[in-house]
Amino acid sequence: MHFNKKVIQRAMPIYIGYLFLGLACGILGQQAHIAPIEAFVMSILAYSGSGQFICIAMLMDNASLFSILVTNFMVSLRYMFFSTAMYPHIKDCSLPYSIIFAQNITDETFAVNLDSFSKDKDWDPQQGLALGFSPCLVWASANFIGCTAAAWLNPPTELVSYILVAMFLGIWSGYLHDTVLLIAGLLGGILSVLLSFVVPFKLHIVLATLIVSVIACWLEVKRSKNEEANS
To answer: What stretches pass through the bilayer (predicted)?
Structure first.
């Protein structure tokens, strides 16, 4: 794992977002009677912000373990596609490396890593692993701190949604020069909001992502064919 200045610069929006979101998640976890060490371990082993928020919400609603597992499995299916997309960039690495790399894939680290592998010839798998693993430590530590602090304080959690949006906008701003990615981002946001009125259990995010990914791939293929025809 190669942790350097380049990794820090590219991961900084993720660090900031995960810090505040992790604090909020830890606070909510304490309200669901999760101990700080449990929040930390869960953040490492089940490294999924959406999955943890859903798990905590369902625990507070006294949902069964089976329903929590099934819901999280469905919400986290997108990581299978993310891992598949990253494979060509790490195919020469060992199996233990691949397992650790896949464990640390999130929406944000996937986007930044994929862009870095595609556009930076000096970006290697060791830097990619550092970019995936370091935000995990920030997220887990923030969960621990938030869960610990919530035992004495009663901090507000209403700003969670705004923090999440701000983090995604910070990452997405690096792609505004690409028409296809700009269209995909706008369409994904609009579609996710519309689907949220009819699709339960936060699955509208997964559905919107899959639909927009297909559209973006189609637009990219079409653009590539047009460029080949004009060359």
So the answer is: 12-28, 40-59, 65-81, 129-153, 159-175, 205-221
